[in-house]
Amino acid sequence: VLVGLGSGLLNTGLFHVIQRAYEHAPAATVNLAGTFFGVGCLATSVLVAGTYYVYTVGSILFFLALIPAFFAISYAKFRFPAEPFAQTLSLRAALADFKKPAAVLFALLLFFQFGNEWAIAGWLPLFLVQRLGISPSVSLWLLALYWTALLVGRLTAQAILPRVSHGKFLLASVLSAWFGCTVLGLTNNVFGATVGILFTGGGFASVYPLVVERIGHRFPYYHPGLYNGIFSLALTGGLLAPATLGWFAERWGVGVVMFLPFLGTGMVVLLLAALWVEAKLSALAAGKPSGPAL
């Protein structure tokens, strides 16, 4: 409970702090935040994998607790600028925007996408241990490989999106994710698991940059409350998906773990298509271009 409360407060605070950076470069700011999040996940996986047989679980958790403790002390000594941020939108207007179809679709899309990514991340080590009989340390290294594929794929996608058709790129990404989940669900060896992890992570990677680009175009202004609401719902999806998989695994076995992300990827495609339609209709109603097409 304390970890959840702390994460929620941190999330809210960060959306206030990045306001000026977002106003300068919306898509780059949110992409950079996602990149740092991926780096943190990768670093944590490597740390736990490398120390699994050296320290106890309690010791590893203590080392992990030192990281937020360091930043807490640093932020306590840091003095933020006294001048107020320029408020371009009232809280009431931001909350009204959160009820609009575009904001709801963005929130739902990130809800399912975070659920897909975190379902794999939360269950991959246990899944590999039970299905392949490998050691926990090796399974954690494979988890680090998953975060690496996701991070590298995301950076690559951000670089090539302006040069490729978004629709074709999304189709290739979805097929990659579906293929990866299928391979992971059927494999009985480490090589197959590695291939499945690379295809799954690479397939998931492009969705976040695509969504961020659409958000930056659809909501060019910035209000911390609006973005905190969208990403709080996304984080909820990321937390609920592994818990839901636990219920499924208890009933039908650990093999079902790859089934939920497979279906979730299809839901993400449908929501991206719905966002494209909503953007076209909004542009027609306003008489202006709808922005980058999927």
Architecture overview:
It is a single chain. By secondary structure, the chain is mostly helical. It is built from twelve helices and no strands. The protein has one domain (2-286): Growth Hormone, Chain: A. Helix 3 (26-51) runs antiparallel to helix 10 (207-218) and helix 6 runs parallel beside helix 11. The longest helix has 32 residues, at 101-132. It is globular and about 60 Å long. The two termini are 39 Å apart.
Tell me, what's the shape?
globular
CATH homologous superfamily - what is it?
A: MFS general substrate transporter like domains
Q: Write down how many β-strands occur, each being a DSSP E stretch of 2 or more residues.
A: 0
**What fraction strand?**
under 5%
| Low-pLDDT residue spans | none
Ends apart, CA distance between termini: 39 Å
CATH topology: Growth Hormone, Chain: A
Query: What structural category characterises the helix and strand content?
Result: mainly alpha
- Average pLDDT works out at 82
CATH arch. level architecture = Up-down Bundle
Radius of gyration: 20 Å
The helicity comes to: over 70%
User: What is the count of structural domains?
Assistant: 1
> What is the ordering of alpha helices and beta strands?
HHHHHHHHHHHH
